[in-house]
Amino acid sequence: MKPIHKTLAALLTSVLLWGCSKDYLNRDNPTATTDEKWWRLESDLFNYLEVIYNNQMSPGALLTSSTYQANCRIHMSGITDESVFRANFGSWNSYPLGAVTATDGYLSDTYRQNYKDIRNASRILENYSRVYMENAVVKEQRAAEARALRARAHLNLFLFFGPIPIVRKSLDTDEGASVPRNTQEEVVDFIATELDSAAEILPASYPSSDAYRISKGACYAMEVQLFLSIKNYEKVIAYARKLIALGVYDLHYSGSSAVNSYAQLFTYDALENKERILFRRTGNSGAFFRLAPKSLSGQACNGPTAAMVNTYETLQGHTLQELGTDSLTWYWKNPLYNNNRDPRLAASVLFPGQTFVNRLLDPFTAGSVDQLGATQSTQTGFWVKKYLDAKDVSRNNAGTLNFMIIRYAEILLSYVEALVESGDWQHPDVLLYLNKIRNRAGMSNVNTDVYNTQEKMRELYRRERKVELAFEGTRLFDIRRWKIGEEVLKGPVMGAINPNTNKPVVVENRIFDPERDYLWPIPLVEINGNPAMKQNPKW
């Protein structure tokens, strides 16, 4: 990996698809031709922008090309209390064990790739005016997309590493050799200003062929994420309302009472839907291979934890914890007992004893193909079901499922959080949107006899975020924002109850340092290469 003066200054010798050259300022384009020849045609601008989209948009499970592993958000759930990650690739498994260091490849990839996108987006903004396009409106929209993508790359870096250097242009070697970190206020202001500027130009929606592009609503959604991360609830409320007022988005509904709308959302039957705000085209092409049971030629890379499974309420709206120890133990052994759980559980997790496609899932019998703990088999006794579609069983690494990076339900939940935490927990929108989300999944309305204080509403919206957005890549940022790492990321991680021992599987013992682990370290190679860079505390 290259130090920051190379990362921020065009990565010096390479930028994605194009090769190295001492004349990188003049030859930084996909065909290694000169700027004067390159920045001419609409197709040139389109192709350059596509490179950024392909790198910047997060997949769910690991793709076989056009991505980097650390950007796969479903696998990243393995460093939270949602799941345990085990695979023959990557280093997510070292993070919750306190074993990650500033030399980790995932850290370096995340840092480098986002600055690569910043560099490339800046190049577009510096050169797009020279491109001939008959439609001047679309030309400005393409530039606005680049501006929004640059803002998103800064947002990614900020969420992972804290305040980072702001880069407003493509830097030469000298400029990039000593770039200090900006303050949090400066980073937030820059991202928000860039997104506001882009939103003024971008359309509210696109035709289906261009639906993956960043829209006005996507800019508002990223500002919701930005301001929620720093608990600026007034801004969260303002941008969430702007997004809602567009009238473009809604929760997905199946159209048939026989089909659960939530479960359908992550299948081919809802490939196009009104809920997606920002998505990666075919971002889950490898989901079946990476997540499915070994008996179906999958790798079971992420095994849901008991902490995740036991979070889901009963259909009556009771938590297992409030039902008492006996009920908790019973449902732990039989998570889907009497079909009396939140339907989002069955839509998101596979369990021992279930038949999926044409395989009986049996992790607890010696010699079973899906035996617990075997290589490329479940480590917890559970499997991730979300985004597993039976249509991919014969093409388990070549599906065409999209991955929703931001969806409408997340924004509604963020809006609810902002209302509750700003003290307006009795605002009618709180119950309106919580019930809308719950009802869509097949759950009952919020019990207002129980959830009748700000503290209880906080408990509820936090649980709703966890179950609604399970394995989608948001949990890490929720844990950090709520400062609950010591509560949920420390101690033994358990899975299903083994019927042979009547005890839960214990997978690992996790370590969490609250003075260190709420931010990732700046990669050591960047610290060594940039004398102006300061490391995060205790790394």
TrEMBL record:
- Annotated coiled-coil segments of the chain: none
Q: Which UniProt keywords apply?
A: Cell outer membrane, Membrane, Signal
Q: What is its main location?
A: membrane
Question: What subcellular locations does the record give?
Answer: Cell outer membrane
Q: Where is the SusD-like N-terminal domain?
A: 80-222
Which Gene3D superfamilies does the annotation name?
A: 1.25.40.390
Q: Which residues form the RagB/SusD domain?
A: 289-539
Does the record bear Membrane in its keywords? yes
Q: What does the similarity note say? A: Belongs to the SusD family.
Name used for this protein in its record: RagB/SusD family nutrient uptake outer membrane protein
Lineage of producing organism? Bacteria, Pseudomonadati, Bacteroidota, Chitinophagia, Chitinophagales
